[in-house]
């Protein structure tokens, strides 16, 4: 099987925190598709859509470039990517917040106290903007993973990291002192696809199903 040119394309996370809930939601809205771990894409059997499995970091760019028409991704990555995509519908799972956190024993209680300090994060764009908007001059250090260990290593005074339950902060003796962004899994779209008459009809049929399921679960 191969990708179909007449189908719309949806990118979802291949293997991560959003994958299972996203697949379940696609099945709940009535889409039939097979998915195997090794697969790069699936073709829906009962809807003119192909599903692409990608790294979540690439989804906003794929949508913005028109490689796919729609994507499902955490809002945190949409904001960080600064790509011109439409946030169409929040999906009420994958809830998390990007928070500023410091070691509990640091005595730091406000972000103003971080002036002149190193702040480690995997979200440098969002973090830099957050501090710049508040006129706090920090040195943002970009780390791709395990950001929460950087204060203990002496690399950073504070971190900006995703928090859901807070267990990872507690495990590392960190406390949150401010909130940068609230996030959840979101359907995003490409403006050109949304303006394409034929695609818009298919996309609207799909979104109607999503809205119905979201309304029923409220
Ligand atoms: P990929 O391999 O696709 O790049 P990843 O490791 O970067 O995956 P995950 O850890 O699977 O990403 O997280 C995917 C998304 O889940 C995040 O971008 C965020 O929107 C959401 N999320 C919800 N809770 C959390 C949390 N506690 N920590 C991190 N992400 C969370
Ligand atoms: Zn990722």
TrEMBL record:
Gene it is expressed from: hisG
Boundaries of every ATP phosphoribosyltransferase catalytic domain copy: 55-211
Signal peptide: none
Function statement: Catalyzes the condensation of ATP and 5-phosphoribose 1-diphosphate to form N'-(5'-phosphoribosyl)-ATP (PR-ATP). Has a crucial role in the pathway because the rate of histidine biosynthesis seems to be controlled primarily by regulation of HisG enzymatic activity.
The organism's place on the tree of life at top rank: Bacteria
A single cellular component GO annotation: cytoplasm
Name of the featured protein: ATP phosphoribosyltransferase
Cell compartment(s), UniProt: Cytoplasm
Species, as recorded: Dictyobacter arantiisoli
